[in-house]
Amino acid sequence: MLKFLRLLPFVVSFGLLSSACSIQAVKGVPPPTAEPLQVSRVEPSPAPAHTPTAVVPSRTPTRAATATPLPTPTPFITPPPPGAPVSIPILMYHHLKTLAPNASETLRTWTVSPEQFTAQLDYLQTRGFHTITFRQLAEFFERGAPLPTQPLILTFDDAWIDAYTVAFPELRKRGMVGVFFVPTQYVDAGGELLMNWEQVLEMDRAGMEFGGHTISHADLTKTNLVEARRQLVQGKAITEEKLGHPIVALSYPFGAFNPQIVAEAGAAGYRAAVILCCGYKQQSDLLLMLPRIRISYGDTLDELAKRLPE
Ligand SMILES: [Zn+2]
User: Fold this and answer.
1) Ion ligand 1: residues, Cβ under 5 Å
2) Where in the chain are the domains?
3) How many angstroms does the Cα of residue 47 sit away from the middle of ligand 1?
4) Which CATH architecture has domain 2-38+82-306?
């Protein structure tokens, strides 16, 4: 309870911001229905783009004969004591598209242009971050499985088609992984604005991770408990049935949660859950309230840098 209270100010302020999520979700699409998630393959963390070439070729003949540079292994970090924070930024994206100059502030808040997005991915690689999944994060905190140094998670909410047409190819091109939270009804709805199950499966098979976002993107703090439980349990089950394997993480629709909903998320079998706010410090006793960092339209790389660990 104390932990929750600590985060309460964020919850309140996010309630307002998160409404954008639903507004956009309604636009142009029939009733959503849920979706996916997954996880788990333990993707090899790609070496940073600028990985050292620490082995400088020598021109000395004698050295050249024996100098077979070995690949630079990715160093790993191990879990801290229970309750101690670890710096693992979780970036939050929604739309990835170019906006008109007069786009609303709400839309700008929840959108990043494809050009900005790819520049951000390149920047993150240059900084040495290694993308991981929530399955890896859970294994790290639950069982002490090591993570690559400078771990970072990229999340994409709501199953927008941009996740498939922009995020997926750009991530794959760089050997990076992303996590996509999809309401199952949204995926069932089809149409040009949202991903369909075929696309979800293609991404899942390619190593992307999918997570739960309930069935209909319901505000779980405003439904009755029976409905909240149905949204969590059935949304997870539908997604897992579609993917053919368990999923690990949940994104609370609108970032809305309270102690009861957090408990229900755990009871539904989620091992990790993300909220809308704020920061990058993660710890084992708050796995169902993991803060994220929002990226908005026009945010510069300098602004992004300020939200990341040194
Ligand atoms: Zn959402």
Assistant:
1) 21, 157-158
2) 2-38+82-306
3) 31
4) Alpha-Beta Barrel (3.20)
Residue 15 Cα to ligand 1 middle (Å)? 12
pLDDT in tens, 171-216: 999 999 999 999 999 998 978 899 999 999 999 999 999 999 999 9
How far is the centre of ligand 1, averaged over its atoms, from the C-alpha of 303 (Å)?
A: 24
The answer to whether the beta carbons of residues 242 and 215 sit under 8 Å apart is: no
Are the CB atoms for 298 and 276 separated by under 8 Å? no
- Phi, psi of 268, deg, nearest 5: -75, -10
Please determine, for residue 31, whether its predicted confidence score (pLDDT) is greater than 80.
no
At 51-65, the pLDDT tens digits run 333 333 333 334 444
Q: From the CA of 33, how far away is ligand 1's center (Å)?
A: 12
- Residue 58 CA to ligand 1 centre (angstroms): 54
Instruction: Tell me, in angstroms, the distance from the centre of ligand 1 to residue 31's CA.
Output: 14
CA distance 30 to 196: 13
Q: Is pTM beyond 0.85 here? A: no
Q: Crossing angle for the helix pair 259-267 and 225-243, nearest 10 degrees?
A: 40
